[in-house]
Amino acid sequence: MAALSPLSVALLVAVSVGLAAAILAWRERPEPGATWLAVLLVGQVWWATFLVFELEAATLPAKALWYDVQWVGVVAVPVGWLFFALAYTGYDRYVTPFTVAAVSIVPAATVAVAAAGDPGNLLATERVVRETAVGTFLEVVPGPLYYIIAGYTYLLGAVGSVPLLQLIRDDARPFRGQSAALLVGTAAPWAGSVAYITGAIPIAGLDPTPLVFVVSGVAYLLALSRFRLLTLAPAPRRRARQLVFEQLHDPVFVVGTEGLLVDLNESAAEAFGIDRREAIGKPASSTVPRYDAVRDLADGDDKPRAIPIVGRDGRRPYEATVRDVVDDHDRTSASVITFHDVGAYLGQQQRLSVLNRVFRHDVRTETNLIQGYAEQLCAESSDERAVSVIEESAGRILELSERTRTAGELFDPTQEYASSPLPDVVDEAVADAREIDSGARVEVGRVPEVTVSVVLRVVLENLCSNAIRHNDRASPWVEIDATVADAWVDVTVADDGPGIDPAEYDVLDRGAETPLRHGSGIGLWIVKWGVDHLGGRISFEEREPRGTLVTVSVPVERSGVPGTDR
Amino acid sequence: MTDVRRRPAADDTMANGPIRPSTSDGTAEQSRSHATTAAAGTRRRVGAFATAAPFTAVVAAVEVAIATAALGVPLSTAPVAVGLVAFSVYAADHVADAEGDVGSTPARAQFALRYGDQLMVAAALSYGLAVALAVGAGPAALALVLVPGAVWVGYATDWLPTVGGLVAPLGDRVPRLGGVSVPRLKDVFLLNSAAVALAWAVAVVAAPLAFARVPVEPAHAPTVALLFAYVAARSFVDVEVPNVRDVAADAAQGVSTLPVVYGVAETRRILFAVDGVAAGLLVALVATDAASGSVVAALAAGLGVSVAVTALADRLDGSTLGVAPDCSYLVAGAVLLALGP
């Protein structure tokens, strides 16, 4: 074979290493970035290959032909590099047919100009054959397009380097290794290119860029084999982190330092009925629920407490946590506010505490009573009163037991409650109440035809039975009324009884009992848990001249038919 | 499948043949049945691999070297480049088909499974080196060497059938492109062996010319044509001989080969006839003084080995039959080396 110039031999090394790396990269598809790395490497190989042909060609026209062919590889390199960097680091949403086409306009135009024989000397104003110690090549005096494509190449290279530089600072060691190898592999040709443009190469007119591709090839090969460049690509990490943010069950808001909403996740939009597009950029005070209360949390070190917030599922207690987003310079750039629905947790806690009290106090009291009167019966077997006291006491234990079961059902996570028209719900509750005392007057006012969860029946049943059982009048009176406003229905239960001891409902408000401050029985707790379950709220008022007015507000079921008054 | 049938894969691409034969080489028929047991160690696996891709590479290089001498062109990097391409294609093939080969060539398949990544790096470097050698030898050599790589890209990509479909209307005018996709050439009776033999002949004869940058002049044309026909005929025999051994398996799989269609005895007669054609071509080479005496003697020695192998086709055991046809080229190379070009 004819003796090759020293430069050609060096380029052949670049070709063989670069092509090997390209094949290995191509084989890794569809790993993120594999195809674009192959494009980059093939571009390098193409450039070096036709530079060899240029060097070995004997005539000026032949050299000029191979010089022009090189442009295909020259322009492919930066395009491959940019999209490889984007795809590899997880910015693949920028790698679309449109962006690829847009980025390829200048390179394609350059190749077209070269293919058309460089009309108007756009690429080169002068071409002369230059003989040097390392080979005979074409020396070119650059035209305007040459400078444009050179600048464009540096631009794409710089843009592509940004995400990779971010990666090199990553805490995951394999990614740092990958990134370092990639940067070496990419910096080498550019260092050569800069040296060429600044005239730092001792052999005038020699562009060393394709030569230093040997370094690139080795670096990429190393990255591929040693650092598992493509099989361990970090691209999914971005997506995974985004996915966690989006799919997190807890609503999350990101608020910038200026108090404007920067981002919110799907759950936040869903739970609080917020339009994401509209909300972003708005003041947090108008979008983040209870922002004033949450912001105070951030300032103080208070023990986290549940903040009731009304959302799509009614009123739910949320525990909010505020975390600052701090950048590398310890500057706070945003706050992440996470709402955690603690309704189920609080309910279970209350239930445990109440059941504990029922066993420890209520059942024990009744048992003591039974025991005492039983002893008395032993002494005097004809004591009618003792028998009736024991019967009543046992009945109360039985009733307590049944209510406990009802309460348990409210907490069954597998239980799904149907919806029912409010009038039906009220009718059923009233029928139950009438069974307790046939002499009771139970009146039903205007009940709108809206759909509510059947859990409301449990609530109303308990309220009515309480009103009748604890009423000291011969003929107790109870009235149920309802009004609808803004997709909420207020159901009121009024009675003419002696009124509820404020201690009984204060303890409901506080949400926890203590050995000294607790309610009696379990009926009011069932009412509270039922209302909580529905995401509603409950309030107690004294009536004039006597009695109590209980108002239960619950959201109307969304599937409900818009109703007409009965 | 046989070594010979697999061997031209690097080049059978030029004739639209499959670059990745679906079954493994014939050398391992014996490995299949008894040579490799569960206790086979790394040494055996290395051995099994060495008799596959590296052996094929050496045989390919020797064939190209003989062709270089026969054509009377200056010695170039062609034998090395073709050998490197053969190695990379077969190594990549062993890795790609490793799982499928576990049943037929367990030792080599295990080696390929275990060192798959390293083999692929070796194959990639080998091909890169071959291309670099070809670049140094000029555009014609580069074009020759790039064909298997281009087809590999196609095989490793899903879009090739699409491309095949697009160019199908051009199929008549561009048979090479059109034929890459369906129907699979290797499934067509006789055409598979013929295509492999032709591809092999093109590579062996064209590589020395392309790498030495020697244009085919009218004076050289008879030598080129006779050598081409000789290599094609010999390669055809090399492809079909191991099929005698595989006749039962091929028949069971519905693969049509000469022994399956015509029976072993008839096949031997056909192969003898093809060898006879090759002998006639050698006589023509001598008569036209198109090649030196030592080259003809070397080719004749190779032909003699081939005739002997054909005669013994149904008596040699599987492993011998797998490598025996290839050994004919090694014998020819040795004779040429002894006599001097």
Provide a descriptive summary of the structure in words.
The complex is a heterodimer of chains A (566) and B (341). With 566 residues, chain A is of the alpha+beta class. Chain A folds into three domains: 6-235, Up-down Bundle (Rhopdopsin 7-helix transmembrane proteins), CATH 1.20.1070.10; 248-341, PAS domain (Beta-Lactamase, 2-Layer Sandwich), CATH 3.30.450; 346-555, Histidine kinase-like ATPase, C-terminal domain (Heat Shock Protein 90, 2-Layer Sandwich). Helices cover 54% and strands 17% of the residues of chain A. Chain A has helices at residues 6-27, 34-56, 60-88, 97-103, 105-115, 144-168, 173-197, 213-225, 235-247, 266-271, 276-279, 284-287, 291-299, 343-379, 384-410, 422-436, 455-469, 502-510, 523-533, and strands at residues 124-131, 136-142, 252-256, 261-264, 306-311, 314-326, 332-341, 419-421, 441-444, 451-453, 477-485, 488-495, 537-542, 548-555. In chain A, strands 4-3-7-6-5 form a five-stranded antiparallel β-sheet. In chain A, a hairpin with a 2-residue loop joins strand 5 and strand 6 (314-326). The longest helix of chain A has 37 residues, at 343-379. With 341 residues, chain B is mostly helical. Chain B has one domain (3-339). In chain B, helix 5 runs antiparallel to helix 6 (78-96), helix 5 runs parallel beside helix 19 (318-339) and helix 14 (221-245) packs parallel to helix 18 (293-311). Chain B is globular. Chain B starts with a helix and ends with a helix. The relative contact order of chain B is 0.15. Residues 1-40 and 155-184 of chain B have low confidence and may be disordered. The A-B interface holds A 1-2, 4, 8-9, 11-13, 15-21, 23-24, 26-27, 29, 45, 49, 52-53, 56, 221, 225 and B 74, 76-77, 117, 120-121, 123-125, 127-129, 131-133, 135-139, 142, 149, 153, 156-157, 211-213.
Unreliable stretches of chain A (pLDDT < 50, length at least 5) are 560-566
Number of helices of chain A: 19
Number of domains of chain B: 1
Query: How far is the N terminus from the C terminus of chain B?
Result: 34 Å
Q: What share of residues are in beta strands of chain B?
A: under 5%
Low-confidence parts of chain B? 1-40, 155-184
Return Rg of chain A in Å.
40 Å
Tell me the distance between the termini of chain A: 104 Å
Helicity of chain A, in percent? 40-55%
Q: Given this structure, which CATH class of the largest domain in chain A is correct?
A: Mainly Alpha
Query: What is the level-2 CATH architecture name of the largest domain in chain A?
Result: Up-down Bundle
- The average pLDDT value of chain B, as a whole number, equals 72
Strand order of the largest sheet of chain A: 4-3-7-6-5
Tally of helical runs of chain B: 19
